[in-house]
Amino acid sequence: MKKDLTFSNLHREQAIQKITQEELDLVVIGGGITGGGIVLDAASRGLKVALLEKADFASGTSSKSTKLIHGGLRYLKQFDFWLVKEVGSERAIVHKLAPHLVVPQKMLLPLIEGGSYGKWLTSAGLKVYDILAQVSGDDKRKMLEKKEALALEPLLPKKILKGAGYYAEYRTDDARLTIENIKTSLHYGAHALNYAEVTDFIYKDERVHGVQVKDHVSGKSYAIHSKYVISAAGPWVDELRSINHSKKGKRLHLTKGVHLVFPHKKLPVKQSVYFDVPDGRMIFAIPRGKITYVGTTDTNYDLDKDRVTTDLADAIYLISAVNNMFPSISLEMDDIESSWAGLRPLIYEEGKSASELSRKDEIFTSESGLISIAGGKLTGYRKMAERVVNRVAKKMEEDHEIDVPECTTDTILLCGNDFKKFKDVEKYIAGVYGKIKSDGLSEYDAWYLVTNYGKQTETVLDLYNKVKGKSATERMAIAELQFGVAYEMIQNPMDFFLRRTGRLYFDIHSVRNLMDVVLSEFKVLFKADDEKIRVWKETLELEIESHSNFSLDRI
User: Fold this and answer.
1) Cα–Cα distance between 313 and 325 in angstroms, integer?
2) CA-CA-CA-CA torsion for 299, 305, 310, 313, nearest 10 degrees?
3) pTM for the model
4) pLDDT tens for residues 230-245?
5) CATH number for the domain that contains residue 192
6) Which residue stretches of 401-442 are H helix?
7) Count of C-beta atoms within a 10 Å radius of residue 251
């Protein structure tokens, strides 16, 4: 496996030349978690593969989920046992692949008077959940009495609380998980480009044999030839099926999910809570570093897929839900620090509401050979990739008598993972803090670096030590940016502040504080003129406003 591969838009022309000069085995459209999983699976089996994303990697659904690698407890209510078994089992695998990025998280399920879950049903459901997901050790479910539940979470409503279920999930950063899958695929010879939009397909003997691409950085167009094409474009799958004239039969049904971010001191839950809302839905409240985030909604969506935002009604709904479950909190609109809104590309089923639609993935193959995959959950991304690459492998055997090896992604450690167990991650965080505390940086800074980059933190720290003449916080931001530009295909400030670092969601104040120093470094790295910097700054300010301001004077 190749080591220390650069992955940079500063070398974009060379990257494009490599993927246009020969026929590939496979082109994957869509740089979200599904596409990232597919390109790693295919490349690790020895296929010549390229991944193309029309915007930034993980810029769609894969940076806007609830950020949980979870077993889908609520799908037991829909008797979707197969889905619970698969995604439940996958949690442990993905944790092993990236223990710094997929972090164990205890979940509390309060049992309240008139709630969705009764004591007996919850106990039985969590027991089935443990069996299906092959949960073992301390992660096994426990049933708590009222006093035990309040000891764990004093904010719960004493008057209506009857007890709680207590079980294990895993928290992640979906955008980081996506980029690390893509970066890992490069070690197996894969190619990947962001800001490269597929505008049409190339046909040979009426079969899809490649794609036409519009490069949004240079403005140029080019062709990539390949034996097969997989569309993993999430909410945009049906658009590509339309271009291919194959949008027939089943189609996508898009629903919007919204999350709000509050300072942890405003919603100081001690661990994650999965709680009832009066309308029958369930909501997560998840602490993460300086903040607690809450979500999600599930409403039908048919507006602009490239600009999905949290509106006032979404914010009121979630704040009301929190205040109903945690009556001592009294959150207000002004308490919102940030938010995000994303789309779920579900498979349409006649007569079913948004919440009732299955989260299972489905594969569609057109008459011309375009393979599309849609639906599914973040947790199941690796198995989704395995299924669709298995289909390509079968076709390669039938069409070209090429024997493709079986999937091994359950053993391929992702970039940044050089840990044997989760306790090693905790020790490493302590070691990183020891290196930076003399500069005035905090334990939070060490935790943030390691849970973002894993052992790649060493490279970030090397860059940090070379930056002079700034505060420690500014030096670290510059080092992160230099790392992201060299190794993570950053093209603009939004790539950095949102998808590579998560700052716009989890530490929005740092975006305001670091904006000018980061833009100055962008100017140097990309040789950007003053007009480009002005446009980038304006874009950042608009994004901060749209993610955080829900006052009535904005409406």
Assistant:
1) 19
2) -40
3) 0.95
4) 999 999 999 999 999 9
5) 3.50.50.60
6) 422-436
7) 13
